[in-house]
């Protein structure tokens, strides 16, 4: 599930603070957002497990898979698709990284 | 050319997981899933929690949306029982009278609540199915005084939900400490304290010896002679495996349907998975029956692997959770001795992990509000590692650092 790009990009973080293999919870425009760096690819998801809305940044990221620790639901970090169970999906926000390393997210 | 057909008996997550994984592994024959409940497979954990509270709807915890079964050509037969298995004839008889031949048969018949003789009637509840939960939810809405018999997970979760709905709740349990049988006395006491602080009356070491229906409620008498009036009783004193179908067909049963590490019963091409399966576990070297959601899913998936020809022993760690109030209780592994646990964190603050440690190896962890610890232990549990009680107690030593880094140590994700 993805939100449409509205063009309202907002600064979320700097790439220097989100290393490869790391994830971080941030708040943008009142919305809880999870930023993940998968081998240099940055993704932005709603920071809520689709199961019971648990904050995903309290969970685990092993470089590939995001695990919600509340009930161990797992998600592919690149696609946001559920891997166990496989019939769910994280909510994706449009996200891009500027040349200077600024991570921009569109949460509108 | 004849089409192969696998018949899955039981409408819970184990059978649903088998169906899912049969298709994932490319099985393109017929799959018939026969369940005696009226709904397609759903998850049971919410039945004693959110569903009672009314914060989640049934549709949200169906294993698959109803349309999925059509899309995947899974022949879903709900509201139907399998009444007999003809082992030599490789067929089953359904309650409709129909006979179905099978190439593979998976018995995932689950468990049923153990009943207390004489504890029946409109206001007495046992909780296993969505229908049970719906009935309890409806009656909770018009009840004030709730008595829970049995302080196990179901009883404690129902108590938490009922308190959340503003009810007066009393739990009776014959053991001196609730939950001690599964969590040990130390953690059992912590959980008791949590319930008491929420206003739940816990009557430990006491059980109900008599139930009498009155005009508008019930009058209970305990073994100590105490009388309690209430509007509603929930009995949660454990479950019994549904082995009858298998036993009548001559399959080996012993407190469950006995299966080997591949999920195979004593009869050819018949497997068992989920709560009903008493399975040989290669890591523990003995037969274990587990009544937990995660185990049912994994065993169901494993049987699908074995039905599609890639023999894989089931050697997973046992993991479960119990959500009570805002607290997350989780455990992985099998504790060696529940009265000998190493505590990391604070019991008082409800923020701890309790480790069962034998000869430098973690056997299990039980955590309250530290699910990360459980995740990390799950990864290292069956991998070589060596830790001391001091390291586990010392919160400056991250558990992650205890995970073996050697290339031959296969950490389980």
TrEMBL record, chain A:
The protein's name: Rieske (2Fe-2S) domain-containing protein
Source species: Amycolatopsis methanolica 239
Recorded GO MF terms: 2 iron, 2 sulfur cluster binding; metal ion binding; monooxygenase activity; oxidoreductase activity, acting on paired donors, with incorporation or reduction of molecular oxygen
Keywords: 2Fe-2S, Iron, Iron-sulfur, Metal-binding
Keyword Metal-binding: yes
RNA-binding as UniProt keyword: no
The protein's required cofactors: [2Fe-2S] cluster
Domain Rieske span(s) in chain numbering: 10-104
Entry-linked InterPro entries: Rieske_2Fe-2S (IPR017941), Rieske_2Fe-2S_sf (IPR036922)
Short name of one Pfam family: Rieske
Family of this protein: Belongs to the bacterial ring-hydroxylating dioxygenase ferredoxin component family.
